[in-house]
Hints:
822 residues, alpha+beta, 7-stranded mixed β-sheet, 6-stranded antiparallel β-sheet, 20 helices, 27% strand, elongated
Amino acid sequence: xxxxxxxxxxxxxxxxxxxxxxxxxxxxxxxxxxxxxxxxxxxxxxxxxxxxxxxxxxxxxxxxxxxxxxxxxxxxxxxxxxxxxxxxxxxxxxxxxxxxxxxxxxxxxxxxxxxxxxxxxxxxxxxxxxxxxxxxxxxxxxxxxxxxxxxxxxxxxxxxxxxxxxxxxxxxxxxxxxxxxxxxxxxxxxxxxxxxxxxxxxxxxxxxxxxxxxxxxxxxxxxxxxxxxxxxxxxxxxxxxxxxxxxxxxxxxxxxxxxxxxxxxxxxxxxxxxxxxxxxxxxxxxxxxxxxxxxxxxxxxxxxxxxxxxxxxxxxxxxxxxxxxxxxxxxxxxxxxxxxxxxxxxxxxxxxxxxxxxxxxxxxxxxxxxxxxxxxxxxxxxxxxxxxxxxxxxxxxxxxxxxxxxxxxxxxxxxxxxxxxxxxxxxxxxxxxxxxxxxxxxxxxxxxxxxxxxxxxxxxxxxxxxxxxxxxxxxxxxxxxxxxxxxxxxxxxxxxxxxxxxxxxxxxxxxxxxxxxxxxxxxxxxxxxxxxxxxxxxxxxxxxxxxxxxxxxxxxxxxxxxxxxxxxxxxxxxxxxxxxxxxxxxxxxxxxxxxxxxxxxxxxxxxxxxxxxxxxxxxxxxxxxxxxxxxxxxxxxxxxxxxxxxxxxxxxxxxxxxxxxxxxxxxxxxxxxxxxxxxxxxxxxxxxxxxxxxxxxxxxxxxxxxxxxxxxxxxxxxxxxxxxxxxxxxxxxxxxxxxxxxxxxxxxxxxxxxxxxxxxxxxxxxxxxxxxxxxxxxxxxxxxxxxxxxxxxxxxxxxxxxxxxxxxxxxxxxxxxxxxxx
Length: 822
């Protein structure tokens, strides 16, 4: 929100420098991001208000003219210009004159460039200065014509004194929507900076025929349209708005269009109530009727309309439309339709001021992607009592600036006026929350300055009964009123105090500690943590299954008001969002080792809330080593890198008994996917992502390895204490054992049985070779293990290790039909 100081002074008088005013507003919750100084670079000795004495044709150029300008000096100057808005024979116009030595912006430079004006000859005729356009002064990019100032502009005054201004650029949070207009900022400035408020209720001269009976107005969906008011202004003349209005609009960041549209924008900026102007003669009646109609209703699914920006919009049944007897003429609170827009041929204007449901406006804006000044205000909440105020102000401006006649009376449907909120604010509560002593009378004075109705209650404990104004949609609780008191006192003036209470005893949070431990382990393994949105789409989930179709949205927790179709449901897996993260990162890097710990949301039939288990997702792709002179040709990460990370995670969490077995899952490549099982409970799946799935996530040809593990159930099996075993001082005896087993026998099961049969003296078992070939036979494989035998108290003999080895071989023969390979 841009607030020109010269405009703000129409409503409030504050005797503070602009810097101190900005500080006071900011410390009161109305943040001033910057203060822009318009005209700061305009040289007071070289740029003036001038008056045209005469215009004559350039003797050597058809498109140039010679302009004689007086500017307060003893002699006028003659300058050459090609501006199309000065013609031969013109006189009396007030212009901006820059004389030799003035610093102006070069209008022909591609970037911002200043140049000093010098004496010159243009087509053989000397030019002693320049009549300026807006671009040369840095006001806008307009360079077609020169600036024509109002008739009252004083000749000879430095332009910086006449047109210079200061603009407060406000960065408003949604709860400060009341300050999204000049009057709102004026109220805040008067209260926070001790200024005098001079806001008056607008009045209108309505001398036209009554509006009653000339408009059929209906609100079919009052839950989305709380109030709809309309005025009729007849006989308007479309043309440019006056220069003072155009200048204020530009300073506030809006582009002037014509007097009618400019007035609606001007009043919106002034009072905070968006308006829309229809061409009254283009509004259609209902079938069988003659009176033009306005019906506010929900759209029909698939209904269409061309908006003012020339785009055809398609609506759904949750969107609110303004319609006439023939169909849509506007999107409620956002943008009007092209069919009924005000044009140069418009004579009668129907002016709309309404109040719409802010959530519906926000949703529709997000769905249709039509940001607008009106939608921004409606989306934060607008006071429903402003509709008639804004209508009176705008109608009177159209009467005085566009020559219109205002019809007597307004149409006003207000089916459900909001209830008046009255709160009792105990003085003790203010003291408790702010830590300062403030009396009831002082609290009442502060809140009254902000527009609240206040009554000091003398019975019982001191308190203030507060009536909340209709425009303060953000105040509903006692705490909200305490915040208003804090703003008035000044956040910078509140004392720093310590908590006057015992600190509660601290208890350990084992699940949180283990989750943080998991993060440390994975980062130590070389992974980077990512955070993605909990919202996704069923179309994204469908990509996890080759040729899959999107699941039903009803099976998911759906967002009531999604901003985009890509974030419509709460996820039930991390796989798709993790693959999306990998794809985004592969645009910039060749190696992506990441993990995410987050919740998923599983609906429970008959329950209002879903289950929210925490899940771990890991993804790997790209070279195993970071590129360097030592690892220029590093091999790519594979299935065993991912399995190794999972093994390390289990080992560091003290989880024993983890087993891995071949599995089937549609997201993964057949034969390259395994399950993680602990104590007979399957906790996760991991492997190489199916090439078709990789391609649907725009990573075709890129091997990606993915894991998803039920983290809460995994951490439930973690040991909270470390167990240390003394190191044996005795030498170890190492032997190799090669076995031939059936292809389907898992090596993990073989290793587990070897450890079990070996007993306490078998210190280590390592699989170091797997062989398949003619030497072992078809459907067979050879597994070679390195065995390490060691005692804590003595040196083992060959006979002792031979007995253990024989026991191991016997158990393997019984369990798997294993044969010793020579």
